[in-house]
Amino acid sequence: MPKFEAAGVRLYAISYDDKRALREFAEKQSIPFPLLSDVKSEVIRRYGILNDAIDKSDAFLFGIPFPGAYVTDEAGKVVSRFFHQSYKKRDSPEVLLDAALGRIEIDEAAPRATGGESGVRIEAAVHGGRGTIRQGVVRQLVVSFELEPGLHLYTDPVPEGLTATQVRVSGPPGFVTADPILPATKTLRHEGLGVDLETWEGRFEIVVPFHADGRLASETRPLDTETASVEVEVRYQACNEVECLLPRAETLRLEVPLDVVDVPKLGMHNGHGQREGLYDAMPHMRRLFLRKARENPVGILRFAWKNFRMEREARRRLRDQG
Amino acid sequence: MIERDEHGFDAPAPLGHPGRRGLPPGHSTGPAIGERLPDFVLPDAFGREIDFHRDRGEAKAVVVFFRSAVW
Asked: A19 to chain B: which residues are within 8 Å by CB?
């Protein structure tokens, strides 16, 4: 989080936890930004993001938000929002910071590979989480191009005979990519063909968001491998005002480390996904349970019973699968 | 307890557990782009009352809503 401070961007995190839980969490996990306690879920409700897929009778959980983030400008106006269908999917802090700054700042230490020739320099780097992969966390494969003055690349659509720039990222099963985010183009008139073409020149970046699902980076079982081999295929054709170079296709390869989570300490109640087992959540769990029991005594009993039953059934299912 | 959901994610809670329910399609995701983020005052972990817009002053801000630090 020093990155946020250095950039002058303030970070706040809100949950339905009480102050004592947040205090211990902040201290044990060395969290330097404010963790705000919305125990009655008032702000969560006012924002319209109360998780109402959770029934009131699921008293223990009732009150949590759909997780997500807002990024504001200096005037406090929302410039970006980040919400996903799955609560397991969340954006890397670096992606949130980029949204605030309007530019991409890649870590010096991020895994990277370089390529390109004849006036075109290409670098592919993993952006976010110090260049690691973790289940559900959206990082980015940033492909930076640097063209010599006078050169440009095309983007689709192009007439036959020209090659549009293309970036394709692939990895092992469970490595999931989203559509590339393309930078703004400049329109150039191709006099020979009599058409307007969309081009890029100078320095620009094509960003491919990606995340891992349970096949690659489960957080409930030890990892199969320590790294993932990721391939970045780049196709392009550099042209100047007069002529074009031959189309190029090259593949950059990166070994991207998987983020180790503390699997032996796992359990719904042990703060799963924490890197260190430093934080004992049990006393806070008990307090949360009592607080919710005061709010909804019948609900908390029903939830406890439901939870017990569901865990028993799941154990049975897993046993039946062998 | 390891069961993979329809998005391909693993979690310690059993499948179908209310804790694993996601954002229903079309559901509100709160304040829209261009809107001023609604005011709020909430205590931080040390009991200080934080008035969001006053606290950030003229700075850009990121406000994250998360599920829980407890479970």
From this structure: 43-47
ipTM: 0.96
Q: Could A78 and B32 be called an inter-chain contact, meaning their C-beta atoms sit closer than 8 Å? A: yes
β-sheet bridge partners, residue A135: A212
Amino acid A278: pLDDT: 66
Provide DSSP, A254-310. EEEEBPP--GGG-STTTTTT-SSTT---HHHHHHHHHHHHHH-HHHHHHHHHHHHHH
Nearest CA in chain A to B58: A74
Are B10 and A135 inside 8 Å of each other by CB?
A: yes
Give all domains of chain A, ordered by start, each with its CATH number: 2-66+281-321 (no CATH), 112-257 (2.60.40.1250)
Task: Measure A9 CA to nearest chain B CA, in Å.
Answer: 5
Q: Which amino acid is at A2?
A: P
Q: How far is CA A276 from the centre of its chain?
A: 21
- Other CB atoms within a 10 A radius of the CB of residue A16 amount to 29
Q: Which residue of B has its CA nearest to A31?
A: B45
Residue of A5, A24, A35 to mutate, testing the B interface (most B Cβ within 10 Å of its Cβ)? A35
The predicted-structure confidence for A17-63, as pLDDT tens digits, reads as follows: 999 999 999 998 889 999 999 999 999 999 999 999 999 889 899 99
pTM summary value? 0.89
- Cβ distance of B62 and A310 shorter than 8 Å: no
Q: Do B67 and A64 touch (CB under 8 A)?
A: yes
Render pLDDT for A60-71 as a digit per residue (tens, 0 to 9): 999 999 999 999
**Which CA distances in Å does A306 have to A51, A53, A116, A299?**
18, 16, 58, 10
| Residue B58 to residue A310, Cβ atoms within 8 A | no
Please provide residue A254's backbone torsions phi and psi, each rounded to the nearest 5 degrees.
Answer: -130, 140
The pLDDT tens digits for B30-43 are 999 999 999 999 99
Three-class SS state of A231: strand
Strand pairing report for B41-43 and B49-51: antiparallel
CB atoms within 10 A of CB A204: 17
Q: What is the DSSP string of A1-25?
A: -HHHHHHTEEEEEEES--HHHHHHH
Does the CB of A38 have a partner CB in chain B at under 8 Å? yes
